[in-house]
Write a structure and sequence with these properties.
This protein is α/β, with parallel strands linked by helices. It has 11 helices and 13 strands. The chain has helices at residues 36-47, 79-90, 137-156, 171-176, 191-208, 231-241, 268-278, 291-299, 310-314, 318-325, 337-341; strands at 7-9, 12-14, 18-20, 52-59, 71-72, 95-101, 118-119, 133-134, 161-166, 215-220, 247-251, 282-285, 305-307. Helix 5 crosses helix 6 (231-241). It is globular and about 65 Å long. Bound molecules: flavin mononucleotide.
Length: 344
């Protein structure tokens, strides 16, 4: 079965093709510390046999948080907690990545300073969000440095892979999209200019992230809006940077409100386009709930890995349950061997 084929990316070998995509649990304290809920959540998915677990959006700075309750990686004190998640999951044979993020204009965390929230241009997401301050070149450099130190800490915490959050209308994605980037300097206008910030972040991260460990980039391949990012443009961007990254995690939307036609696997075509047009491995994600759809995507080589978000939230045992039901010889969690020896 396609789902259970191992996958190798640099020094990381996955035991199967199922990914837990980053999903913010919004349950950290105000300092973004890891707690028991985070640990139990991620380790349960590891016990359930998930091949690659990507830890939720983790803030590189205080004003890079989506909310007051996001995980953080903005100082060294966060390393032990984040390490406990990585080690806890690795114990059950999963590989673990962490997503590093700056929330840009979608930061809702409390900040005293009226200029707390930064974005390429001073345009609010909608009336419920603060109007961000247009980020200066000096502040751009600060955030780039923060992405680099976050990568260094992620390595120290023992993560197998790193995902840069370039999707869903957070800071990197805001630079990429013409809807949120109205700058007239070298960071705005042409596609090359809008991609400049992303490239600076990747280059800084690569100073600290070991070259033998995979570097993933999550993108919104389209904004689903006439004046927004189109997949053809995203293909051009990925082609610009593909020698610097190892895999693209292909999502869509989140930059501005849009009517999206939702159906099972609705984003898979974008993962397929980027895989084929850019010749780079991809992760497909979005309303994927069944083994049939997972195997269709992998069997037809539309993506290399498949991420199941809300399905794995509902059922952490999706992988081992499918292995058992399909009589796959699998490395079941030792303490549950009795259950998986049951006749089917
Ligand atoms: C509660 C929740 C939190 C999320 N947090 C993140 C996040 O931290 N980073 C991210 O890139 N995507 C995030 N997402 C998007 C998911 O990674 C995924 O792309 C989305 O849920 C679609 O996949 P699904 O239909 O399998 O759930 C989140 C989604 C949900 C439902």
């Amino acid at each position: 079965m396609e789902m259970f084929k191992p996958y190798v990316l640099k020094d990381m070998t996955l035991k199967n093709r199922i990914v837990l995509p980053p999903m913010d649990n919004y349950c950290a304290d105000n300092e973004g510390n890891v707690n028991d809920t985070h640990f139990n959540h991620y380790v349960s998915r590891a016990m359930g046999g998930v091949g690659l677990i990507i830890v939720e959006a983790t803030a590189i700075s205080q004003n890079g948080r989506i909310s007051d309750n996001c995980l953080s990686i903005w100082d060294d004190s966060k390393v032990p907690g984040l390490k406990s998640i990585a080690e806890g999951c690795q114990k059950y044979g999963s590989k673990v990545a962490i997503q590093i993020n700056h929330a840009g204009r979608k930061c809702t965390a409390n900040g005293d300073d009226k200029d707390y929230t930064l974005a390429p241009s001073a345009i609010a997401f909608d009336e419920t969000y603060r109007v961000p301050k247009e980020i200066t070149k000096e502040e751009i450099l600060d955030t780039v440095v923060h992405f680099g130190t976050a990568a260094k800490r992620a390595d120290e915490a023992g993560y197998d892979a790193l995902e840069i959050h370039g999707a869903h209308g957070y800071l990197i994605s805001e630079f990429l999209s013409p809807i949120t980037n109205k700058r007239t300097d070298e960071y705005g206008g042409s596609l090359e200019n809008r991609a400049r910030y992303l490239i600076e972040v990747i280059d800084e991260v690569k100073k600290y992230w070991p070259s033998n460990k995979p570097l993933l980039l999550r993108v919104s391949a389209t904004d689903h809006l006439p004046d927004g990012m189109k997949v053809e443009e995203m293909v051009e961007i990925i082609n610009m940077i593909k020698t610097k990254i190892d895999m693209v995690h292909v999502s869509t939307g989140g930059v501005a409100l849009a009517n999206i036609n939702l159906y099972p696997g609705y984003q898979v075509k974008y993962a397929e386009i980027i895989k084929k047009e850019c010749d780079i491995p991809t992760i497909a994600v979005g309303l994927i709930r069944t083994k049939e759809l997972v195997n269709e995507i992998l069997g037809n080589e539309r993506a290399d890995l498949v991420a199941l978000g809300r399905e794995l939230a509902r059922n952490p045992f999706f992988v081992v349950q499918n292995a058992w039901e399909n009589k796959i010889d699998y490395d079941y969690p030792a303490i549950y061997a009795h259950a998986f020896r049951e006749k089917r």
